[in-house]
Specification:
Elements (H helix, E strand, L loop, with lengths): L11 H10 L3 H26 L1 H8 L3 H26 L4 H18 L6 H29 L5 H9 L1 H16 L14 E2 L2 E2 L1 H4 L2 H23 L4 H6 L3 H16 L20 H8 L3 H5 L5 H29 L7 H10 L1 H13 L5 H18 L6 H29 L5 H29 L5 H21 L23
Antiparallel strand pairs: 1-2
Helix pairs in contact: 2-5, 2-6, 2-7, 2-8, 2-10, 4-6, 4-20, 5-6, 5-10, 6-7, 6-19, 6-20, 7-17, 7-19, 8-10, 8-16, 15-16, 15-19, 15-20, 15-21, 17-19, 18-19, 18-21, 19-20
Amino acid sequence: MGGGGPLADGGEALQARIDESGFGPFQLLMLLLTGGIMFAEGAEMLVMGSITTLLHDHWELNAIVRGTMVSVVFVGFSCGNLVSGMIGDVRGRKASILLAYTLIGGFGMLTSTAWSPAVMVALRFFVGVGCGVGFPSVYSLIPEVCPTHMRGIISAIMIGFMPGGELFAAFLVYWIDPNLEQTTEHCELGYDAGQWIEGYTRCSWRSLCLYSALPAFVFFTLALLGLRESPHFLMARGRTEEAEKVLNQIDSWNHWPSPAPKKEPLKPKEDAGKSGKAEATNDDPGAFAVLSSPKYFMTTAFMCIAHFVKDFSVFGLAYVFPQYFAGSGKHTVAHHLIVTALLAIPGVAIAVAVMRTSWIGHITAMRTAAGLTSLMALGMLEASPEALAVPCAYALKFVSLVFFIVTVIYTAEVFPSKYRNTSVGYCTAVGRVGSISAPLLFELSMDWSDGSFDFFLTLVASFMGFIAVAAGFALSIETKGKALATDVEDYGSTKGA
């Protein structure tokens, strides 16, 4: 382990080294191994939303229990987000990601064995914890291993793995039970003469839970072998020699088959000496003290609100859209799920295009995406022309995803590396209140309004409109094209970028 404290010039020399190494196989591998968290989460969430009717038929669930089975995952998300900060900023991003894959896969597979509603709720909670543990770490790791000009693009593509997981799960539904109707009262776990009883083989919700958990185990195996720790995290913790080793790997992988050029090694603070690490630890104010400091308080508070709106809209719409599109009656449920998942692809493409432009900053992109989302939601109201309803619904799907991606990228870049995992975890944990409340508010509004979608859509439009206006006043620090900060004092430098 390398001694010494943080870099004398903050993250500038470190970011310069990463920029000089360019973009190549190293970043592509990290993208695959972090994107697996998003993929596994997308698959788990779509399957759980799809099998609610099957579970109702199997256990005769009331509305409260059905809603709890969906919302409890987001409660687990919030708990996992908070835990991820403590793990990712102390033990490292890799440890947090590996734990996430283990929890998602293990508890996801166990849901296929659930024998009661209470057991199902408990197991789904821990699946949510797994997703929550992984999200802040992958959001932090990708910007910390990418050259400056590719940070936003690769982060956007990584988040695009989530609709990829939804598409995978939608095809599972198409393959196993296209109309979500295969369940029997005899579907129980058990053996008869050494074989599963016949009813078990016809209980499609168990098969869906089982197969949707498999990607997490595949990604865990790959990450265990190939995932590398963030050099920004290592430098922030004074582990200079380990950071140098990762940087050398970036050089060798990206320049292969040619030999990597020789570069001057990173140097810790000259005055740190052997006691530098201990002194830095003793003087460390802690992540929450930094988040509440005058320098970061407004940013932290606003990003918590932005994440609430992001989750309320994106996850709420994921819950609402299958019911909104169900009126056609011309296709199977699986067909609608596949179409809905495919609608996310244009959103990822638009986000990537925005990240590639040098003249559109993250704050401007966030405000624009929020404003467009608000307009599309208004276009779906009953008072709007009927011809606008379906086109606005399609547009709302991918424009809201653009807002999701830009919000995540800005949050992952605006806080210093030393506290990034905790900061992202805290903001996303608060945001989970939006995803927890959205299904409940939607169901209640449907009862109040005799089946109208207007109340929920008006909330989406109002929340997004607020973000579009308030972001211009609350956010003053643009991160696009700037070196990532390693510690508090070297925030937002353009050197080395």
